[in-house]
Every structure is written in C-alpha cells, then in structure tokens.
C-alpha cells in the first residue's frame, strides 16, 4: 500500500508506507515550512488521536520539529478539532495531528494545519511537498526547538462549545438525556464523557477507554455500529452517539436503535442554526456551505429558511475556505462533520453534540421524531479499485455519456445531478480507490444507481 499524500495530509500502513523515515521527512518539512513563514521561533501544536501506534509516531514528529528549530507545544491525546482550536486561539504557527481519521488500526498519518487552525489548502500543500522532496537544513544545537506541555485545551474546547449563546445548559440538563457513547477507544474518550456530564446527561460508555485498540472498524457507519445500536435498545437510552478516532465526525443512533444517518448530522445542525437565525429576523440571507457529496436535504432546509447553499469539492479545507469567503453561518460535510465558525473553522463532533442536544431540547421530541420532520433522502456508497486504469479517463467518458441526462459538475471528479437523484464519482483523498456516492428518495433507488454506475465503470475499464 503506497503512502497516501493528499489535501488530507499523509497516511499509510504502519511498517509498510508509513515508516519512521516517512514520518520524519514530512514532519521535518512542515517544521521548515513553518520556520520559513514565522521565523526561527515558530511554534507548532502537536496532538494525537489515541491509536496505539501514535505512541511511537508522535515522538518522531516531535524530534523532527525540534531538529528544525521549531518549538513543540504538546497537548497529548485529543480530537483533531481540539488541535485546530488550540492553534487558532493559542497563537501557534501551525499544528500537526497524528491520526489516520477513520482508517483501520494498521493505518496512521499526519494532518497539517496552518496558523489559522485550518488545514493546509492545495497551494500550501504543494509547497510542503516541494520542501519534503529535499532534505533541507537542520538547526544548530543552540537553535534547536524546545518542548512544552499544555493540558488546558480539552477543557477550553468544551468551554468554547458550552459558552455559545446558542446553548442553554439548563434546558439540556432538564432533559436528563440517557446516552450510550461509543468512542472506539480513541480520543473521544478524553472529551465526550466530560462534555455530556456537564450537560447533565447519564453516560453509558461503550469503547471509551482510550486504549487506542479499536473495538470495531472505526469508520462510524451503520454496519460498524451494530453494538451501539443494540446497547441503545437494551439500555432504553434516549440516543446513541458515535465519533471516529479523531472526533471530527458525529453519528447518531435513535432511541429505537436505528441509524439517524450520518448525512443528517449536518442537516440537523443547519436546521437548528437557520431556525435560530429566523427567530432573530435580522441580516441578509444566511449562507451555508457543504461539499458536493452532501445530502440534498441541506438544500431543502436552506430553501425553507431563505438561505443560500454553496457546494465545494470534498475535503474539509475546501468547505472551510468557502465558509470564510462567504461569511457562512454553518457548514460541513455529510460524513457527520459540522463546522460552526463561532467556535472554529473545522469539522467538530463536540460542536455537533452541543447543537444536536440543544435542538432536541428545543423540540421536546425524540431523535426519531426529529428526523421525521426533516426532508427524506437516502445515500448509498460504493467504491472500486481501478488498478492501473486512469480514473480521469473513465470519468471523462462517463460524463460524455450522461451529459444530456443531468447537470454535470467536474469541480471534484464527476457529479451528475438528475431530477430525482444524483451520483458523485471521485478519487478518494484517503484510499487508492474511486468512490461512488448516490442519493435518491429511497435506499433501493440509491443502491441501484451505485450498482449501475459501478457496472458502467467496470465496462469502460475493461473489467468485465
């Protein structure tokens, strides 16, 4: 498996592509990148998602940064959004998180942030990769970086969310929510339980020991959350909460033990924020930013509130930059990622939990009741490994075949919007595959669209 180098940072399989040499190479390059922009006194926030291999990867990152003359501010096991918050509010010159996000145990990687707390964009990444191609100079002994430990950022992250004017702690505490929590034994176990306890929730922990040994495949999708769903039913809980290892994705299970739908995390957050804005009745139409693969439910909700939706290529930085440009009040991605600029411009499950519990408190209903009031869509996903076949050639040929059938968008792979459904075909930022994502009003229809386009791709690639 080759090292994946993309706008999402680097990630690879430990012992194969993510070797100590690769870690030092890219961490050192980032140190040089920061030093060139912020002088020899540059500082970098360093955190990790808790997976077991981070215990040796993080020291390699620390050493590479020190050798480049960069000061390292370690904040330990924590969510990726906590590092983003610490960079932005702590005046750091950059940030690195040792994480492979939702990838399985054998993977790890590095995510890089600029001084804004946002991930490096395409141009910034190209500069980082250019630096990584050359060994570069290391600092003399008297100019080496130093290391400090900062233990305040988990608490500050919780405070930033609970301090929002949108959040009424007393109202949420009054609901006495009973919640089953699955943190996949990673960084979520450090922050979600104390957040929920401050909100007066009864927490039933599941995989919250922060051992870094994942209890199940870590991507928070329904097939990986059957244990959580069963426990919600067994415990007669109000809801289940699941986060991925670096806590930027929030996925919910209803009181019936059924998936709420990862797409409906952002849809519900949009409904909550726009509804609160309507109550204020002030200002120009609100703006919402989501990526091209996010549910049409966001468009329906925005339309009902007179808001405008902007769509970007997949990738958090693409959404965050567009939010900053447009002054959007809410945004995110359909994988369960909520971005609220009032806290910071990054996907944040802690923010999502606060908004969703407040929305539940305001509505006075159950989670299943909440979803029943939202536009109804179903998303199906698939993937295909093309091997040596050029994905760009395949996408161009499919676009030509369907150009008259629907609206074509080539900002990120190929998206085709049909009247009652859409399909998005794109190269993954995190795996060597072509993703197939489709949405329709029923799962049967969405699954059929995925199957049809997989068949077309296989035929064009000569795989049949």
Commentary on this structure:
The longest helix is centred in the first third of the chain and has 19 residues. With 464 residues, the protein is an alpha/beta fold. Helix content is 39%, strand content 21%. It is globular and about 65 Å long. It has four domains: 148 residues, Alpha-D-Glucose-1,6-Bisphosphate, subunit A, domain 3 (Alpha-D-Glucose-1,6-Bisphosphate, Chain A, domain 3), CATH 3.40.120; 97 residues, Alpha-D-Glucose-1,6-Bisphosphate, Chain A, domain 3; 101 residues, 3-Layer(aba) Sandwich (Alpha-D-Glucose-1,6-Bisphosphate, Chain A, domain 3); 83 residues, TATA-Binding Protein (2-Layer Sandwich). The chain has 15 helices and 20 strands. Helix 1 packs across helix 4 and helix 9 crosses helix 12. The strands form four sheets. Strands 1-2-6-5-3-4-7 form a seven-stranded mixed sheet, sandwiched between helices.
Keywords:
seven-stranded mixed β-sheet; 4 domains; alpha/beta; Alpha-D-Glucose-1,6-Bisphosphate, Chain A, domain 3; 20 strands; 15 helices; 464 residues; 39% helix
Q: Please describe the biggest sheet, giving its number of strands, its sense, and whether it closes into a barrel.
A: 7 strands, mixed
Low-confidence stretches: none
List the domain count as a whole number: 4
- The main sheet orders its strands as 1-2-6-5-3-4-7
> DSSP helix count?
15
The rough form would be described as globular
Overall pLDDT confidence? 94
Percent of residues in helices: 25-40%
What share of residues are in beta strands?
A: 15-25%
């Amino acid at each position: 498996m080759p090292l994946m180098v993309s706008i999402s940072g680097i990630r690879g399989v430990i012992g194969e592509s993510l070797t100590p040499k690769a870690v030092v190479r890219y961490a050192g390059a980032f140190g040089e990148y920061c030093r060139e922009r912020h002088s020899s006194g540059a500082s970098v926030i360093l955190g990790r998602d808790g997976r077991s291999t981070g215990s040796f990867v993080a020291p390699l990152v620390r050493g590479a940064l020190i050798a480049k003359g960069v000061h390292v501010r370690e904040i330990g096991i924590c969510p990726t959004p906590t590092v983003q918050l610490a960079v932005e509010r702590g005046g750091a010159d950059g940030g690195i998180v040792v994480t492979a996000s939702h990838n399985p145990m054998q993977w790890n990687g590095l995510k890089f942030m600029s001084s804004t707390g946002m991930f490096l964009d395409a141009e910034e990444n190209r500069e980082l990769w250019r630096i990584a191609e050359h060994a570069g100079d290391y600092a003399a002994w008297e100019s080496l970086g130093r290391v400090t430990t900062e233990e305040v950022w988990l608490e500050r992250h919780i405070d930033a969310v609970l301090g929002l004017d949108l959040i009424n702690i007393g109202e949420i505490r009054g609901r006495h929510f009973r919640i089953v929590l699955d943190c996949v034994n990673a960084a979520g176990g450090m922050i979600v339980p104390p957040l929920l306890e401050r909100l007066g929730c009864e927490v039933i922990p599941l995989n919250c020991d922060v051992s870094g040994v994942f209890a199940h495949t870590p991507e928070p999708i329904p097939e990986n959350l059957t244990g959580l769903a069963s426990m919600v039913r067994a415990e007669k809980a109000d809801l289940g909460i699941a986060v991925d290892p670096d806590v930027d994705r929030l996925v919910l299970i209803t009181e019936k033990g059924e998936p709420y739908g990862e797409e409906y995390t952002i849809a519900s957050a949009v409904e909550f924020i726009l509804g609160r804005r309507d109550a204020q009745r002030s200002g120009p139409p609100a703006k919402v930013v989501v990526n091209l693969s996010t549910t049409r439910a966001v468009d329906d909700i925005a339309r009902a509130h007179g808001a405008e939706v902007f769509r970007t290529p997949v990738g958090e930085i693409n959404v965050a930059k567009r939010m900053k440009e447009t002054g959007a009040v809410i945004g995110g991605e359909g994988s369960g990622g909520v971005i609220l600029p009032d806290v910071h411009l990054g996907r944040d499950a802690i923010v999502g939990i606060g908004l969703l519990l407040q929305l539940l408190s305001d509505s006075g209903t159950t989670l299943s009741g909440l979803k029943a009031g939202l536009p109804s869509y179903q998303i199906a996903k698939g993937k295909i490994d093309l091997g040596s076949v050029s994905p760009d050639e395949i996408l161009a040929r499919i676009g030509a075949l369907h150009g008259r059938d629907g609206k074509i968008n080539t900002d990120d792979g190929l998206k085709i919007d049909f009247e009652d459904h859409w399909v998005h075909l794109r190269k993954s930022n995190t795996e060597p595959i072509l993703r197939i994502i489709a949405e329709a009003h029923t799962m049967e229809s969405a699954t059929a669209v995925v199957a049809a386009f997989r068949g077309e791709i296989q035929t064009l690639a000569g795989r049949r």
